[in-house]
Design a protein that fits this description.
The complex is a heterodimer. Chain A is 74% helix and 4% strand. By secondary structure, chain A is mainly alpha-helical. Helix content of chain B is 70%, strand content 0%. The chains are: A mainly alpha, B mainly alpha.
Chain lengths: 325, 391
């Protein structure tokens, strides 16, 4: 068939490139996946407790990126600042992103979800509300900030820190990975070893019983939205450092991927979100290398479908409620 | 605690006026249902006649409803055609969401498959048709006839519905949502990347309509006058409304209802959920494919990026805002979501913001949808009454 022949002009599947630089692609994928993982934690926290897909979480992340950008602009950030200023920008960006995202997440909960919970609405209603909210947020930013890609100053110029063999690790990759791991660890400790964390787990296990035992359900729910928002804000800073731009609809695809990551690892499971995020990042980079980026997104979803077929509850498939104390 | 209680009572009083509006609407519905059958038939026929008259709308005082009554407004019949296609989509998606209770966020995939079946087989410019011409020594003008493309589109979408449903319908509701969302994206990306048969990112042009490939000689289904297209789409919609209504009241429809309300109980009673869910998927998919076919024929040209995930979400919103489970409701929802953005083009910058706000408000104030299905509204009310402790 002539058309098939014409389609196969270039190299269709580039195994040489992938296996020639496997280490490099793995590191790239892990760094990419770390951002997914941080956003995925927000989905997983809310799902673990409320059994609800918080579709607006992608916009919570988007607000964070704009908060980071706004802070940097206000502080007069320029490309390649000196070390002291760089640290200031990073810390200020982190604080601003986390606060803005956290506040957005809590506001979403207060304005919309709380009322729906009082009505005991079915999940579909929550989902449509969340979709509406996410439209409102992204469109509001589209109108306010314009619909084009907004560039950001390069606060942390990429440079190779060290190499193992021919695998080069850059400073941003290392920062992203370490930040994700540290935050993951902190969240895990918080959920498993504090009073508040116990409340979260109790509500996740059985909301009614938890309420009867004196857990303030409302406050626990607000807490998980806040936590998810804070993590999304941190992810927003890492995104700003790595990609150096944002846009009013930046959250959509990233949120989709992050949610996929959460499902992949087992939604409602914190460690699962980390695993799913990192795995998804690596799979995407591999697929992008193999097929010149054409099939990157398809690969992510195919991995999801295949994993769900064999493990319908995700890789680690354990709910937040049953997480070990 | 006292402040909380105060807040709650405050909310109660705040809700009362809404309650009144709700009752007023319910009153009209009840009064209509109480009319004798022949009077309801006459009302219905008058309404259908009005729908057919709609593209010519010239009643003084109602002209402002037309989308071309504003500067830069879109062709009125063209907008009506889009609305009719949306209504068809909503009816199809309603089978999946409203009747069977499965959340499908990838419905645009079926829409795309329907559109691409007519494009790939019916257009002279598609790589597949060109390959067939060469292989079988056919003339340059040969392509699969439009009427033959319809069964092809229906078959392909039904098959893809089963292929998607077979592995995924065993998953729980929320997983199903994300997997279907992924499916919609996969279809789009596959079409975009497969230049060898789908035309790739530039898309496919010269998609035929009922009168064959687009040309200046097409006197009825031409490029300029959209009225015949609207009447065609409206007729298809009415036919499908009739068929789906029959289906709803059949054994299959009752099985869907049973599965939606309690899957385990249905299974115990001998309804095999998987089989009927698969049916819902296949039938919903076929309707989506049909609407995609109409859309592509009217456009004459399609490209992969027209079928993005946002469109899927718009489809789900149509069903839920209108009132999932009720055909009149979903049709109204689809019409509004297709019509309002066109009528209020002046606010182009703001319209999606307003759309989002409207979604949130409808869900908060009227979660059962604008015209709810009576049964679904009762399900919601039941849920509301069993609000658990400590909320």
């Amino acid at each position: 068939m002539p058309p098939a022949a014409s389609g196969a002009k270039g190299v269709l599947v580039n195994f040489e490139e992938l296996f020639g630089h496997l280490g490099q692609h793995t590191v790239d994928g892990l760094a990419k996946g770390a951002i997914y993982a941080l956003v995925a934690l927000g989905y997983t926290l809310v799902y673990g407790v409320l059994k609800l897909i918080n579709f607006a979480h992608s916009e919570v992340f988007m607000v964070g990126t704009f908060a980071v950008l706004g802070t940097w602009t206000t502080l007069g950030a320029t490309n390649n600042p000196p070390l002291g200023m760089m640290l200031l920008f990073l810390v200020a960006g982190l604080v601003a992103g986390a606060l803005a995202s956290g506040a957005t997440a809590v506001a979403v909960e207060r304005i919309a979800y709380k009322r729906l919970r009082e009505m005991n609405a079915p999940p579909l209603i929550f989902l449509i509300t969340a979709i509406g909210l996410s439209l409102v947020l992204s469109e509001a930013f589209g109108i306010w900030q314009g619909r084009l890609v907004v560039g950001m100053p390069v606060i942390l110029p990429q440079k190779v820190l060290f190499s193992i063999g021919d695998t080069a690790v850059t400073n941003t990759q290392l920062l992203t990975l370490i930040a994700a791991l540290v935050m993951m660890f902190a969240l895990d400790q918080f959920i498993n070893h504090t009073r508040y964390g116990r409340g979260v787990r109790a509500v996740a296990q059985n909301p009614d019983t938890a309420a009867l035992m004196g857990v303030n359900k409302d406050r626990v729910i607000m807490l998980i939205f806040l936590l998810g928002g804070l993590l999304a804000g941190a992810a927003a800073l890492l995104y700003a450092i790595r990609y150096g731009n944002t846009r009013f609809n930046v959250g959509f695809l990233l949120g989709l991927k992050a949610f996929t990551a959460a499902v992949l690892g087992g939604i409602g499971n914190l460690r699962g979100a980390l695993l799913g995020g990192l795995l998804l990042g690596v799979v995407e980079v591999y697929a992008a290398t193999l097929t010149q980026s054409n099939w990157e997104d398809v690969a992510a979803f195919i991995v999801l479908v295949v994993v769900l077929l064999f493990r319908p509850t995700g890789l680690l498939g354990e709910s937040l409620g049953r997480a070990r104390a | 605690m006292t402040t909380e209680e105060k807040a709650r009572t405050g909310q109660e009083t705040g809700r009362r006026p809404l309650e009144g509006i709700r009752n007023a609407f319910g009153g009209i519905g009840a009064r209509f249902a109480a009319l004798p059958r022949w009077q309801r038939m006459i009302a219905f026929l008058a309404f259908v006649a009005f729908l057919y008259y709609l593209p010519l709308l010239g009643i003084p005082g109602l002209i402002w409803l037309r989308t071309d009554s504003i500067p830069n407004g879109n062709n009125w019949a063209g907008v009506l055609f889009t609305c009719a296609v949306y209504v068809l989509i909503a009816i199809g998606l309603n089978v999946v969401i409203g009747l069977a209770g499965l959340l499908d966020l990838g419905y645009v995939g079926f829409f795309a498959i329907g559109a691409y079946s007519v494009a790939v087989f019916g257009s002279r410019q598609s790589p597949v048709v060109k390959a067939l011409q060469e292989r079988f020594d056919l003339s340059q003008d040969w392509a699969v006839a439009w009427a033959v493309c319809i069964p092809i589109a229906l078959a392909l979408t039904m098959i893809s519905g089963v292929v998607l449903g077979w592995p995924t319908l065993r998953l729980r509701g929320d997983y199903l949502a994300i997997v279907t969302l992924g499916f919609g994206e996969i279809i789009r990306i596959v079409v975009r990347n497969s230049t060898s048969w789908s035309g790739g990112p530039p898309g496919i042009a010269a998609i035929p309509g009922p009168q064959g490939a687009p040309s200046a000689d097409n006197d009825i289904f031409g490029l300029i006058d959209a009225k015949p297209w609207y009447w065609l789409a409206l007729s298809v919609v009415l036919l499908m409304v009739f068929l789906v209504r029959r289906l709803e009241n059949s054994r299959v429809g009752r099985a869907w209802l049973a599965i939606r309300e309690d899957e385990d109980a249905a299974a115990v009673m001998g309804v095999y959920p998987f089989k009927f869910k698969l049916w819902a998927f296949a039938i919903g998919a076929a309707l989506g494919g049909l609407s995609g076919l109409l859309f592509a024929s009217r456009q004459g040209f399609i490209e992969p990026n027209q079928f993005n995930a946002q469109l899927s979400i718009l489809f789900v919103a149509m069903v839920v805002v209108g009132g999932s489970g009720n055909m009149a409701g979903v049709a109204l929802g689809a019409f509004l979501l297709g019509y309002l953005p066109e009528r209020f083009r002046d606010f182009a910058e703001w319209r999606f913001l307003v759309f989002g706000l409207a979604l949130v408000l409808v869900m908060l104030l009227r979660p059962q949808g604008l015209i709810p299905s009576r049964r679904r509204a009762r399900e919601l009310k039941d849920r509301q009454e069993e609000v658990p402790a400590g909320v």
